Amino acid sequence: MKQINLLPQRKPLRAPFISDVLPTVLLLFASRATVMGMSPFSAAFFAAAYDKRIAYIGIIGSLMGIATSAGIAAVPKYLIILIASWLILGFVKKENTVAGSVATAISVIVGGGVMLLAGFNGVFDIFLLITEAMTSALMFIIFKKAESVTEDFHRRRGMTAEEYVSVAITVGVMLSGLSDIGAYGITLTHILASYILLVASLNTTVSVSACTGLCIGFMSSMSSSDALVMMGVYGFGALFASFMNTFKRIGCVVGFICAISVMLIYAQSTYEIPGSILNAAIGGLLFLVTPRVIHEYLRSFFTKSMQVESVNPTSRMREYLSMRLIKTAEAFSSLHECFFSMSEGRLKKYSDDIGIILDETAERVCNDCKMCGKCWQTDFRKTYKNMLELIGIIEHEGMLNSENVPAHFGEKCERTARFINEINHVYELYKRDVLRRSDAVTTRNLISMQYNEINKLFSGMAGDVEDGFMFMEDDEERIVNALDKLGIIPYEISVIESTSGVCEVYLRLPPAVSHSIVEGAVSDVLDRCVSYEKTENGLSKYVSGALYEVEKSLLQLPRDGYGVNGDSVAMFTVGMSKFYCIIADGMGSGSEAQYESATACRLLTSFLKSGFSIKTALGILNSSMCLNMENEMYSTIDLLCVDLYTAEVQMYKIGSAQTLMLNGGEIKTITSSSVPAGILSDIRLDKKTVAMKEGDVILMMSDGITESGYSVSRTEWIKKIMVKPFESMDELAKEVMDTAIEKNNGIAKDDMSIVALRILSK
User: Fold this and answer.
1) What digits encode the pLDDT tens for the residues 320-343?
2) Partners of 754 in the beta sheet?
3) Which of 264, 369, 388, 602 has a 20 to 30 Å separation from 504 between CA atoms?
4) How far apart are CA 154 and CA 481, in angstroms?
């Protein structure tokens, strides 16, 4: 067992370095900034941006600042606050801003609470303490954001709006700590404030300059009653200075001085005009004489907000629709290739559904037979195959009689003679009916069904365009900012989220960028696992990973005496969100059955990969197989779809064998009562939806497996195997296959295929 240490993991104290001088001086300035006799910036800066390994120096420097501004009497309170902050922050992770903010507020309440116990003057003291705690918590976040700007700044090309504001407020706090330095109305605070605002006005936009002026104006003057006036003066001054930056540095200075003069006159503070203008003039003079080299260096701290070109919404839509239509065209191209060699006369002998013969014959002969339930329900597949065999004999020999009827059918059917007579009669009526139908009419009906399915496809695409996905512009900006901190500047970005929860990020990146670094940054922003998929035409695609995966195993065995298995199996994933498994069982065995099942499997796979819905794909597949009348194609379809985000499983069955699911310790049986694809023009889809969980197992099988054995409930032996613990699905599939062969006396009486699947969490 791993030992859990609940004590804070504090790094040992160290000796100070030269590099610690600047943070200590800034802490001193922050500690000197007071509001209503309080110093909420001291604990906040100490907690957010000061190295706790030299906490002893920080505490001393902070107390010196407090003593020189708020007085010696305030030192005990803030000594307690700083020590409490140092101790509490030992339990907080450095990157957890919220926890650090709360810890700072708690430390202020602890220190202030101790002083209240020593001398309580009224409810107003409690109000001030709560206000100071909240201010400290807020300033912790601001200082933390400002500190992040300095991290790897040499690799960055800009700051976000939040970072600009945080830096401006931080600078204002530091300038407030210098408010006592000066004489005759000339103060170091206002000189530096004017200089900084002129630099910002020269190198940033109008909005950023004005915002910087408001923040610095208020924070640098908050200890006096003129804070609101100076906020407006500096904000207006920076605004006009930025308007005048077309005339370079001199224009900024003129605009700044004129603006603050107008604002002071408007505020009826004419007595402050000489000193304020003098402060601004001194700051402007320093700004003008600053060497160009230094200005170039300062420019890096006031870079304009990054303008990463976002993919135009129209281009996004065009690209998305183009991609879908190309995939659709590829699917229909595959369909064309499969049926290209088909004869012009698509109806060789009959064009209607062969199911009419079966239904009519069964109605005449089997309706009142005591074996009807067993033949047409329990053993439907065998009965259906036998019926097809009888119709084949009639077609080739002209008539079914007692001499050419198969022996196994005669032994099984109790009404053989009547059945032979009725099926011959029904078949003759059927042929006469077919002769009255034209080739064109039937073909037109089937093609009409194709158009109907295509109509469903485009309707679904229209729904996708309208509601199927959304562009996440806020996340685009956050991703750009995150990549910028890593020194990566994307040229284009697009973030799309579908209704299924799949998130796709498209980035046009500089050469030689590590995809693993980008994956980490994007994953942190979106708070989900995102992985690189591919790069096409310079646009890299990153896709959110699924929560589940499927462990799979496939075993197949051909029928004895046949070298080819008539079953076809396909397993694939679409868009990293949907896992599909298809088992197609062609009629009969051998190469002909294999061709039927493989064609059905290939077409269905192509349709699903191109974005067709399952119902549309199955509908087009069925009508396409019905059209191939010269070479009749029939195949059962067993289709499973696993949503890799929710673990929901959908089963679609068209004449297929039973599927077994071990779901939450309970075995569920999924059956089908529909006929195979390619027989009836209007198929009925047997759909079942099951919410699966991690560890649940699915067994998909052809009838060669499910019909092995001689018990009444032929899948009971499979259920007993499923409940056993298996290390892998390979073991489960092998045991089922071996047991099925054993129950068939060591031979494969039919094509045998089994797919074992297990749902796993990633």
Assistant:
1) 665 665 666 566 555 555 544 443
2) 555, 701
3) 602
4) 15
